[in-house]
Inverse folding.
């Protein structure tokens, strides 16, 4: 049994589908404060720092805690979850015709110390998006995509945003699952 320091439905589904016993408990963190302390760091480092902070925030004796985070960078600019529907539309306009870099990170804390950390990268090539498509898309997907960095759920209509994806599905869903499973086996949480 592990604790997943996240309320992300996609991360919970990944673990459940992979047969990992877990309890989801979101970490209560000021992510912006953490980010400001490491401002200017590469997106991959920021994602790892957030994943570690989430894992450490819920540290419990003898129970591994999994923290995870994902960040999106487009044209060198980092994007957070949209603040509202208008902001989501602005993000989609900016993403149109560009490559979205999605950095997914995870960390496992055991007894209050980081026992493992890892990350992965996916490159999502966004097709040219018309205003009509953006409006139709948000009509269908809002407010669910408001909780998603990158303003998409790949397992839903968000797949229509892209013309090509480089990277594994789990990274796109927001967590480097294969390395996480390997770390859980090393920690004895999963059978080898």
């Amino acid at each position: 049994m592990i604790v997943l320091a996240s309320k992300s439905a996609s991360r919970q589904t990944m673990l459940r589908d992979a047969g990992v016993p877990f309890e989801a408990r979101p970490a209560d963190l000021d992510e912006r404060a953490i980010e400001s302390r490491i401002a200017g760091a590469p997106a991959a480092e920021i994602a790892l720092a957030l994943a570690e902070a989430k894992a450490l925030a819920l540290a419990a004796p003898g129970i591994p805690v999994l923290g995870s985070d994902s960040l999106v960078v487009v044209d060198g600019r980092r994007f957070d979850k949209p603040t509202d529907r208008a902001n989501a539309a602005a993000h989609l306009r900016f993403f149109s015709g560009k490559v979205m870099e999605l950095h997914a990170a995870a960390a496992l804390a055991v007894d209050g110390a980081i026992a493992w950390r890892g990350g992965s990268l996916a490159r999502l090539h966004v097709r040219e998006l018309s205003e009509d498509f953006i409006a139709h898309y948000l009509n269908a997907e809002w407010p669910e995509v408001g909780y998603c960095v990158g303003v998409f759920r790949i397992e839903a209509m968000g797949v229509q945003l892209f013309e090509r994806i480089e990277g594994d599905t789990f990274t796109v869903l927001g967590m480097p699952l294969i390395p996480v499973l390997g770390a859980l086996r090393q920690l004895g949480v999963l059978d080898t």
